[in-house]
Amino acid sequence: MGAGALARSDVVPYIARWTSEECPPTVVVANGRGIGYARETPYDRDADGVLWKRIGWSPGKGRPVFGQVHFLRQRRAMRRMLCQVCGGPADRNEDGVLWLVGEGPDEREASAAELTTTHPPVCVPCAVTAVRSCPHLRKRYVALRVGLVTVAGVRGELYRPGGLFPEAYDADGVAWDDWRVRWILAAQLVVELHHFTVVDLEDLAEGCAAA
Ligand SMILES: [Zn+2]
User: Ligand 1 centroid to 123 CA: how many Å?
Assistant: First the structure.
């Protein structure tokens, strides 16, 4: 599901990019072990030392770009278990954190077979609103309670040593323990979902109405 897939037309998802949030021109250089920026700041890498794409941070300014994910809000939502739609805390109970995962053919990365996803969790009101306002979502998405979430890696642009500068040659996902993680310009955090149970969205909706 894209950043706009769960949205009503009047709600802009927390993880969506706005037109004012542009990627500044950057120079990617080789640093011996992998890639870096010519002028790097402490904010350019995450706690694990992975280099991230630079992007402005001004949500609400300009127009939302539905279907485009803001790299750093996506990462924040994953790290802090925030709802991808409203940005508040994702729903959590004794069975785990609430997730909507896609079943469609274009949602292979979130399919039950692989159980890795780039889509952050959701809260109950946003999940219920999403499926109520868009009935076909009920067929396309399965709600899960996820007992354990681990960071699997990142998706982004892969670089390799070039002439003067490293050159981008592919877009892919790379695991933390893969040596290429030093050669990727990360744009999304990938997590793995474990210990999950399928939840009935109708039950969720009823609980929401009763509350
Ligand atoms: Zn929400």
Answer: 4
The answer to whether position 7 is within a domain reads no
Contact 174, 158 (CB under 8 A): yes
Q: How far apart are CA 17 and CA 21, in angstroms?
A: 7
Answer yes or no: is 8 within a domain: no
176 Cα: distance to centroid of ligand 1 (angstroms): 29
Ligand 1 center to 174 CA (angstroms): 28
The domain in which residue 192 lies consists of 16-210
**In this structure, is residue 200 part of a structural domain?**
yes
> How many folded domains does the chain comprise?
1
Q: How far does the centroid of ligand 1 lie from the alpha carbon of residue 119, in Å?
A: 13
Residue with tokens 């996902």: 173
Give the mean model confidence (pLDDT) for residues 128-147.
80
Q: Are 42 and 36 in contact (CB under 8 A)?
A: no
In a domain, 42, yes or no: yes
How much distance in Å is there from the Cα of 204 to the middle of ligand 1? 13
Contact 141, 198 (CB under 8 A): no
- pLDDT, residue 113, reads 46
Q: Residue 172 has which token pair?
A: 């892919």
Distance (Å) from CA 121 to ligand 1 centroid? 9
Residue 30 has pLDDT above 70, yes or no: yes
Give residue 7's pLDDT.
52
Reference 196, options 96, 89, 64; nearest CA is 96
**Tens-place pLDDT, residues 159-170:** 999 888 999 999
